[in-house]
Write a structure and sequence with these properties.
This protein is α+β, with helices and mostly antiparallel strands. It has helices at 29-32, 35-48, 196-202, and strands at residues 15-17, 53-56, 60-61, 80-81, 84-87, 93-95, 100-108, 115-124, 127-136, 149-150, 155-158, 171-177, 190-191.
């Protein structure tokens, strides 16, 4: 089995693309505002497709953020997703995408936020790049140290339960960040649509770093839409 950010065997496992835009009419306000219904939607989508994971969301203009005041703004709410989501079962192992050191970590404990979060700093081809792993299990922060060495493929975390992952169905939010600025243990994963260009420049597409291939998706990913 080749490396990937989550356990995945391309010979036996399956991925499906998941759409969280307004084009997905199954995601009604009733569903996204009820954790039981929202979790059932994700679990059912995976089950009927015989998929191990649902994946997508980078550069996706999403409706689901209306469920949390975290993304509100008096002038323009934040709705453009800057990371890649991998939806699956709680407890799913998460592996580091590259060698690096722990930059920071935190428990962002607001409904709709990341919950348990780890950020790793990498030097790749002479350039600094950070990987943010959000919606993790709280136990993954125990014993973690800033500047601790991390190896590519090292087990660093697990998908968290809703009670510890910001009140979301279990999944991994993976985001790349070139310049962290003053942020520690946190970094915006959603931006205003009107500011998308500047935010996307600092958070490139994580898919090439995951070990997962777009050719493994049976559906078109809504990148750029």
């Amino acid at each position: 089995m080749s490396f990937s950010v989550v356990s995945f065997d391309s010979l036996s496992d399956r991925l499906i693309a998941m759409d969280f835009t307004a084009a997905n009419h199954e995601l009604t306000d009733e569903v996204i505002n009820d954790m039981s219904l929202f979790s059932h939607y994700v679990e059912h989508s995976l089950s009927i497709s015989h998929a191990r994971y649902g994946i997508g969301g980078y550069n996706e203009h999403r409706t689901v953020y209306s469920r949390s005041s975290v993304f509100d703004d008096t002038l323009e709410p934040r709705r453009l997703h800057l990371g890649l989501d991998i939806w699956g079962k709680s407890g799913t192992p998460v592996f580091a995408i590259a060698d690096g050191i722990v930059h920071s970590f935190a428990f962002n404990n607001r409904s709709g936020d990341y919950g348990a979060t780890i950020i790793v700093k990498h030097e790749i081809e002479g350039s600094i790049l950070h990987s943010l792993y959000g919606h993790l299990s709280l136990k993954d922060l125990q014993g973690l140290r800033v500047d601790e060495h991390i190896s590519k493929g090292q087990l660093i975390a697990h998908f968290g339960e809703p009670s510890e992952n910001g009140n979301w169905p279990p999944h991994l939010h993976l985001q790349l960040i070139k310049d962290m600025g003053i942020w520690e243990g946190d970094y915006p994963g959603v931006c205003k649509f009107s500011e998308r260009e500047q935010w996307l420049l600092n958070s490139p597409d994580p898919l090439p770093y995951t070990g997962l291939k777009s050719s493994e998706f049976p559906l078109h990913l809504p990148y750029g839409e």
